[in-house]
Amino acid sequence: MTTKQSRSAKPEERELARKRKEQERLEAELAECELRLATLRGELKSLEARYLNLVGAPYAELDELRAQIAERLAAEEPGNERLQRAAQEARARADESRAAAPAEKTGEHKTFSLSPELKRMYREAAKRIHPDLTADDADRVRRQELMAEVNQAYQQGDESAIAKILDVYESSPEAVQGEGAGAELVRVIRKLSLMNNRFSEIEAEMQVLLNSDLYILKVQADDAQEQNRDLLAEMADKVQQRVADSKARMEILTAGRVH
After folding, report:
1. What was the pLDDT predicted at 41?
2. 116-129 vs 137-155: helix axis angle to the nearest 10?
3. d(CA 153, CA 150)
4. Pair 240, 58: CB distance under 8 Å
5. Which of 106, 100, 111, 97 lies closest to 54, judged by CA?
6. CA 171 → CA 13, 16, 139, 165, distances in Å?
7. Does residue 4 lie within any of the structural domains?
8. What whole-number distance in Å separates Cα of residue 122 and Cα of residue 107?
């Protein structure tokens, strides 16, 4: 735009140009924040699934064995309140562990992995269709549905699915823009406000995740990996040894040789 053209532009047109530059910058920053959040979610979900598979299942078996042992000892001394209480507590732990453990072992869990193209596609989706970037209720509902699909595709590493979701939204009526610099300026200002709100929401969720026990486990697992160790496999081995010890004790009790 020439200097003469700039001078002839209306105030709302100049402000709109400035706000659009700000919007472009914030969109890029927000997409990166959304990417970091989605990546952390995916990594923690992958870690949790592997933990439940490798460690959670044998822990549930261990707690069940301990409950059976405690109940056997309590049955032999029904008047012993300490043994009765210990049996009740052990059964409660066993029930809780069984509920948390996977129904069956699923084999080797797929590691959450990323590609540059997958990250790029996610950024594009976050820029264009995130539900917190619209003030229109109907459009928000549609964006929520599509963004949920984007997050699922991202965690599955499906680049083509994200591209298809973007195409669907771009061709939808909700993506049609209105006319006029004044109206567009209002939309951009509202979008900037929504983006700033979203930044706050992301920061809050990130803090929750970073302060979680699962994230602490992730840090420990990552440190072990740098030493060529598999922390979860080590944990599973230790639990399996305790399971073996509990089975041996149960066999002794069953045979009536309580020491």
Report:
1. 94
2. 170
3. 5
4. yes
5. 106
6. 27, 25, 13, 10
7. no
8. 29
Residues shown for the chain? 259
Q: Under DSSP, is residue 211 helix (H, G, I), strand (E, B) or coil?
A: coil
Can you read off the two tokens belonging to residue 140? 């928000």
The mean pLDDT of 217-239, rounded to a whole number, is: 95
Indicate the number of domains in the chain: 1
Using only the alpha carbons of the chain, give its radius of gyration.
Answer: 28
Say if residues 238 and 73 touch (Cβ distance below 8 Å).
Answer: no
Q: Tell me which residue range forms the domain holding 84.
A: 9-254
Which stretch of DSSP H or E encloses residue 201?
A: helix 181-210
Q: Predicted confidence band at 237 (pLDDT cuts at 50, 70, 90)?
A: very high
Tell me if 95 is assigned to some domain. Answer: yes
**pTM, two decimal places:** 0.70
> Is 216 among the domain residues?
yes
DSSP category for residue 132: G
Q: Please, are residues 149 and 164 in contact by the beta-carbon 8 Å criterion?
A: no
Task: Give the model confidence (pLDDT) of 180-206 as tens digits.
Answer: 777 778 778 878 888 898 999 999 999
Look at residue 2 and tell me if it is in a domain. no
CB 163 within 8 A of CB 122: no
